[in-house]
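Structure (tokenized):
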């Protein structure tokens, strides 16, 4: 008849499993606890679980650090005040300028300019046709709630080109809106709380570092 194992002896065996020295990588651990699913021992399954958790934590921290690196530097923010063109070339610059334009209900000017930039890069005729039509319906048509301000001469030239659209058909209209933003919206942007708050934030960051 098999001899029964006392509770004290069972606890000693479990303690021996926990304190056992680590095995070489790739080698199975001997006498692994049968209750490894509870996380009470240093079995291979539990070690893998902890390692996966640490990797996930590191990945999250890397993502946070990468997001922090996307903020524009003080030098970049200052450069926007010197050059409207430089601000438009910066993703962060366009985003903060768009935020300001939204507060003035003139965001559509920038969206039109960006859509024209995208159209210029397109070479596929069928895609050019589609994008040209969308730009017209969204920003040029007098029926659109997002219609931008274009003079009659430029608007007539666009209407004549619609029959055979090309990727440069909005170039003159784009320049007109660019000039409007540069001369009208941009000076107000530089004096706005949106830009000044960002500039102050970047200065504080430089002082802290």
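Design, position by position:
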């Amino acid at each position: 008849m098999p001899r029964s194992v006392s509770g004290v002896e069972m606890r000693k065996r479990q303690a021996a499993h926990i304190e056992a020295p680590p095995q070489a990588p790739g080698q199975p651990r001997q006498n692994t606890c049968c209750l490894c699913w509870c996380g009470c021992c240093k079995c291979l399954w539990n070690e893998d679980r902890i390692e996966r958790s640490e990797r996930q934590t590191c990945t999250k921290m890397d993502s946070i650090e990468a997001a922090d690196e996307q903020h524009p530097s003080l030098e970049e923010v200052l450069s926007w005040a010197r050059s409207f063109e430089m601000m438009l070339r910066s993703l962060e610059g366009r985003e903060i300028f768009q935020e300001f334009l939204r507060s003035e209900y003139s965001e559509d000017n920038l969206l039109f300019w960006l859509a024209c930039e995208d159209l210029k890069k397109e070479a596929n005729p069928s895609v050019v046709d589609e994008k040209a039509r969308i730009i017209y319906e969204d920003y040029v048509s007098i029926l659109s709630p997002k219609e931008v301000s274009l003079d009659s001469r430029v608007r007539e030239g666009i209407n004549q080109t619609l029959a055979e659209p090309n990727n440069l058909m909005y170039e003159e209209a784009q320049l007109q809106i660019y000039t409007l933003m540069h001369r009208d919206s941009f000076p107000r942007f530089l004096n706005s709380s949106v830009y000044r708050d960002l500039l102050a934030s970047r200065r504080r960051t430089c002082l802290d570092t």
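Reviewer-requested clarification: The first helix runs from residue 7 to 18. Residues 104 and 123 are 34 Å apart (CA to CA).
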